[in-house]
């Protein structure tokens, strides 16, 4: 086929548009459209029964249809469910046996407290030791007892220290008192050593009785220390003796059970308990039984626990609150030594202490204080060693209990108080759970704390003004948990933040949180996870607005780019943000940039220009180059626009023939064609660079297209060539279809210069001859179907953009029509419509030549 | 010639049940040779009657074989509430201070080997409390057609509260039955051994409030 000469058809876009317009129809807005949001219509206001038809719309009351994709992402995916199931809950320390039943070195022992108490609670008043005597009967028993003399004597045997003797030591100085108690301690050991077990028990009982005496009350804590020393000695002696009874033939192992104990030893042990159970007075009975608590090990497995519970309850019978609190302290002390894992009794002691604390202000205590001339503040300090000790026992390795309570308390605080109180709770949790990294065992509870706070605090400026909130987040040191927490915060932010913000407190905190999420990304992170994180971070960026302070906004984007460099969707979003910023600037300036704003939009362009190359997705880069080029052009940044478009063109050869889309390899051809078409339509308004040749961008693009390694048996290149024809035709018009305000396009630059038109025509002719060569090639092979389709495309292009008054072009068009119909692969309906269209056009002025042509266009040749 | 004989039973707690064998060793300790005519073992049961001045003359008429009884144990908790109005043997009710004590015994039928348990709450009291005690009393009755003798003995007194205890807080009632002074409740035509517990509340002004509960002790 001989080479064709191109002549563009002159276009009158305005009148064409007018003629093309369809008759204007009023579109009913309520008409169904698949993309339209579902809205609720009040079905009652409608007349006439369209039964059932309203049900689907009225059932969903949200104004936005739920996105089915995001719905499926909601909840836990099977993999994480699986992972969650494999995390078996760790057992609390107390369950595991062995060493755990001993207190560790992290528990401050009693021995380090006693010296402190002795030196703190001293007196100069005279003390007395009154050891109740067997002969003093009226004093020793209640007046109620109607008991025979003989029986009574027998009962009181235990209460006597030495039969028939009485000892009341009066006017003792504190040092004397200490010495006397030490003497008693010695005589206890002596009695025990000389096998006088009953005497030893009597000494202990008599000493314990002294603890129900609160005269010289300021000395009571020290008295407690001295006397419990004796009790400790006694407890040790009894235990060791019973233990030694089991030594034959083999010594008992440390972790023995009641089954390993022989009957004789058991009977001896039981005897001790029976003797103690018959001690008449409450206080000595309590103390002495507590002293041999450990001996329960010889009898039953649960003995210690049961005894602790019973003795704890028994203390309620002590009316004097000071005596009671020290009894509790002693019970906690032996409890911790013997079975620190039995937390229940420790807690019960504490709660009972609270329940009975009002006794402190009771009449009995007040009378006593008046009598002893002791002021309430001094009196209250007497409690501190005991309460301190009880609390130390209760709090020992109790972070688990603590955090379970705190988790509940925080909700109460959130609901009824302000951020100040919530902050206090957070501070307290941090304080409690930081030592020994206890937080590592409490992540679920800590997460729940955050969740509850987020339920009640949606104002993030309030939330982040709690100074302990971020330090609280720092406790989440396990990566996966920390990221989870950050995600939950961001989700709430995105959901509830209504207005864009520039609050520095919010921005700093959220940047920190988003950075944490971003930094968790590594080579192993799944794409889904990256996408989810990116979505959240983008949601944050979308909510950042510095209002008219565009410079600030841009520097925020600069910072964000540095912070989130590993998440491509975020970087893409930032580029869009900056482009939008440039367009916003243009809008504010109504298209007339000042020196300052011109510099600013150039800075925006620079931002995009240096950011785009960091992206790995080639189509993201191409599209962003094009978009940024358009934005630059809109802002009259010609050289920047040029740079963007040139960059896009030089990137084209790098486009791979296949790209990965959602994990599948797909041909990139259709994406590339889309991009090129889009690019071509932009080129209409891009003025030629003064230092470059005519149409250098178009030529550059076409050269790239020519050199690109297209798929075998592909018509893509030819389709690009056909697509370029309309652009070139549009460029040769006197007045362009579209232009950019304040940007002179080639229309103005060349002013329809014949040389320019000639260049265009030459280019068109080259393209057409390329297309025709290709069509020829297709005729030889199996490609007749493709041939027909391409021929029809070119025909359409000629019809729309070529000047068919030119005979050669006219003939070419007719040939193409016939070629496309030659093998019968043409869609008849399309052909018929095209013919009708041509006939319609022919009726217009200057178009009569088309009617001649229609005569030569045969419809079908199925031969 | 000094000889000592020591019977050592194998069982440490010395409690035997019907059908069980009593076994052990006899330890004969002698410096010199000891001549003997064989060792024989015999077991005697002994009931020791202590006569009080009131019951002199009654026991002369008393003869009966005493048969131990076995009965089933059924928990029968007892609630109690003590106020000035519930008291008997009060001379001047109007002079009594106001008080309210409530509580319960988990059971009044008790196994001798198990403790007596329950709870007591001092709901209110005008006068401070000095002490609350559990008094275990054994009541022995002998008699026949001519008349009977009743002897009550306190066999144990256990203080469960000392001083002016906290109002509204339950105080445990807990008493171990003394092994030497308790046995299952015994009731025959002529001879009875019964037990009672008194809850004794002593007020600061030395008013004494006593509530009595008959107990039935059994060996299970």
TrEMBL record, chain A:
The keyword Transport applies. The keyword Protein transport applies. InterPro entries: VPS35L (IPR029705). Its main location: other. Residues 42-69 are annotated as: Disordered. GO terms for biological process: endocytic recycling; protein transport. It is found in: Endosome. It comes from the Eukaryota. Keywords: Endosome, Protein transport, Transport. GO terms for cellular component: endosome. Residues 52-63 have a biased composition (Low complexity). PANTHER family: ESOPHAGEAL CANCER ASSOCIATED PROTEIN, VPS35 ENDOSOMAL PROTEIN-SORTING FACTOR-LIKE. Belongs to the VPS35L family. This is VPS35 endosomal protein-sorting factor-like.
Automatic annotation (TrEMBL), chain B:
It comes from the Eukaryota. This is VPS26 endosomal protein sorting factor C. Transmembrane segments: none annotated. It comes from Cyprinus carpio. Belongs to the VPS26 family. One of its GO terms (biological process) is intracellular protein transport.
